Amino acid sequence: MKKRNRLRTIFLILLLLLVAIQFLPVDRSTPALTPAQDFLAVMNSPGQLGPLIKDGCYDCHSHETEYPWYSYVAPVGQWLQGHIRKARKQVNFSVWTTYSTEDADHALKEIVEVVKEKEMPLKSFTWMHPEARLTDVQRTELATWFQGLRTGASDNNAEGNSDDEGNEEEGE
Predict the structure, then answer these.
(1) How far apart are CA 114 and CA 10, in angstroms?
(2) Using CA atoms, how far apart are residues 101 and 115, in angstroms rounded to an integer?
(3) Domain edges within the chain
(4) Residue 111: HSE in the Cβ half-sphere, 13 Å Cα cutoff
């Protein structure tokens, strides 16, 4: 009987904590958009790539986040907002033109890598956003286009080719 009372007490405490954290505010505010700073507005993406980028990246990596209903339920809302804050620190498409050339090039390099490696969009995001799921062909198209935008792309491709050739020679 004591064990049952202890479990009931633990359950009630957890329930009270869950109810209490519903009242903790989560800052979902976003700065006003400046279209002249937006990545898609200034980069002239090929027709089919713009919607892919918007659907797969902008909810976390811009100030155009559309918060789903479950973002208003704690602790999911706090977790989601922390994820969005971190994502915007890594790259924020809404303020693209404020990046230095070096920072933009680094961001593009990282984007190419995470798209190729299927690290983005996150699986947890695509569960609730099926429009963000990318095929292998779409991933290749995006990675190729982002790579072409890089300021150091020709240097990096030249280095990559020499490394690939060197690896082929070792294998022969």
Answers:
(1) 42
(2) 21
(3) 26-158
(4) 26
C-alpha span between 18 and 147 (Å, rounded): 45
Cα separation, 101 vs 106, whole angstroms: 9
Q: What is the pLDDT of residues 100-145, one digit of tens each?
A: 999 999 999 999 999 999 999 888 888 888 888 999 999 999 999 9
Burial of 9 per CB tally in 10 Å (0-12, 13-18, 19+) = exposed
Determine the straight-line distance between the first and last CA of the chain, rounded to whole angstroms.
Answer: 74
- pLDDT, residue 156, reads 42
- The answer to pTM > 0.90 is no
Tokens of 74: 């704690």
Q: Which two tokens stand for residue 68?
A: 């789903």
Tokens of 78: 């706090």
Q: What is the residue-averaged pLDDT of the chain?
A: 84
Residue entry with tokens 């100030």: 63
CA of 156: how far to CAs of 35, 73, 100, 148, in Å? 31, 45, 19, 11
Both tokens of residue 66? 């559309």
Which tokens go with 1? 């009987």
User: What type of residue sits at position 131?
Assistant: E
Residue 49 one-letter amino acid: L
